[in-house]
Amino acid sequence: MLEQYNVFLANAYFALFALVAVGSAIGLLTSRHPLNGALFLVGVMLSMAGVYSLQASPFLGVLQILVYAGAIMMLVVFVIMVLNQAKDHIIPRPDGFAFTLLGLPLAVGIALVWLFTVKAPVKGDDHALRASVERIAPVLFDTTTAGPGYYLLFELIGVLLLVAVVAAVLLAKRSLDTDSDEEPSTAGDGHDHH
Amino acid sequence: MTTIDPIHVQVLAGVLFSLGLAVVVARRNIFLILMGVELMLNSVNLSFVGFSRTFPGDASLTGHLVPLFTIAIAAAEACIGLAMVICITRGKDTVDADAFSEMKE
User: What backbone phi and psi angles, to 5 degrees, belong to A56?
Assistant: First the structure.
């Protein structure tokens, strides 16, 4: 009895999160200002974090809120506000072509239901583990049992993030420099200015 | 005990992916295109997590690990992408993707 109640509750929450996610994504597609779109995307991220938690992955849910809704979307909103003086920032609503594209998700959904029920049915496994931090950490860091693959990947991601941050600072710095004063050393490399 | 049907998760991921694709194709604002790409990346993560619930035992943990790396890659991608947007919009005073067509001819 209690178990049935839990299953019903999980499905109700999933339906709620899915509705919010799809509604926010449609809002992103039809938004007039990119700032509105960014807030809609935050809505998608937050409801997706709820779906992760329902899918026995609380760590990913927290990470989704911290990294996506927190860090990445903050960066996007910040840059939108920095470049807000561009004259064509407020854009007209998408044309008829965009609204016909709304049929695309419907077609994909129907195709997936057909694929996973008729052609290659998928079933949830009763022995799937809950991906808590205690279970994920050994797979990632314990190289004696899981092999060095994920650990190497983890280190490489660290290097990649460092390189990305340095590159982003260099890219943005140069364009800001040439905006204020024209230096001969940075005049001819890559970016356009007129 | 599995509570949510994996099919429903896959359908949600597919619908969100195609909505992100629609944003990338239909909108011409640079920021909206970037956000559409972010939405597509997110829905693939959701697909990984959904499929991981169909494996038994330790194999079910792998699908929860891959999104960790994808999120890190997405952070680097947003970082570089926004720096490039700042770079190309300076001196242009527009954020319309159709305005950047210097490589056309």
Answer: 60, 35
